[in-house]
Amino acid sequence: MQNKILVLCLLSFLSLAACTFGFEPIGTTPGAGVTPGASVPAGDTGTVTQIIDGDTIDVRVNGREVRIRYIGVNTPERDEVCYREAREANRLLVEGKTVRLVADAEDTDRYGRLLRYVYVGDMNVNAALVQQGYAEVVSYPPNTAQYETLKSLEIEAANANRGCHPTGIFNDGSYTR
């Protein structure tokens, strides 16, 4: 009984906090990041063990921990507005879940992180974060296989003032960084 009360109190607190900050949990948005009729590309699978921030996670793949940086997106950094909301959006999508990790042209970034498009089931997490406004599109050639799709999702999110867009964090006037 005490556990039920504790869970209800926690859910109430989170709902109140979400309303206070205008946070819309994307994990509950039907169809976010899903392209109807599209198949999920092949890639390694693993279990998410840690959420680092809005666009970086740790995944256990074949008994080994690897750090994954999402391709084609950027989220606010720790000292920037909307960081907590973007990290929470990412957490709701992937925490503890089995993910498929799909590569593009390059395998790693300059920090040694694996660069991947991340899928939970048929949901493209990179796209879901952009579509809901918690990430902006980034073009880092040659890793641009999904750039045009992500760009159109960001335009849609910005026009609808979703996620972090009302804060102005993504208003640099460019889709390339």
In short:
This protein is α+β, with helices and mostly antiparallel strands and 177 residues long.
Protein traits:
five-stranded mixed barrel; two-stranded antiparallel ribbon; 177 residues; OB fold (Dihydrolipoamide Acetyltransferase, E2P)
Shape: globular
H/E element order = HEEEEHEEEHEH
Largest sheet: 5 strands, mixed, barrel
Low-confidence stretches: 5-31
In CATH, what is the class?
Mainly Beta
Question: What's the architecture, going by CATH?
Answer: Beta Barrel
Look at the structure and give the mean pLDDT: 84
Rg value = 16 Å
Walk me through the structure.
The protein is an alpha+beta fold and 177 residues long. The chain has a single domain, classed as Beta Barrel (OB fold (Dihydrolipoamide Acetyltransferase, E2P)). It is 29% helix and 22% strand. The protein is built from 4 helices and 8 strands, in the order αββββαβββαβα. The chain has helices spanning 2-21, 83-94, 125-131, 147-159; strands at residues 44-51, 56-61, 64-70, 73-74, 98-102, 114-120, 123-124, 136-137. A 5-stranded mixed β-barrel has the order 1-2-3-6-5. A two-stranded antiparallel ribbon has the order 4-8. Helix 3 packs parallel to helix 4 (147-159).
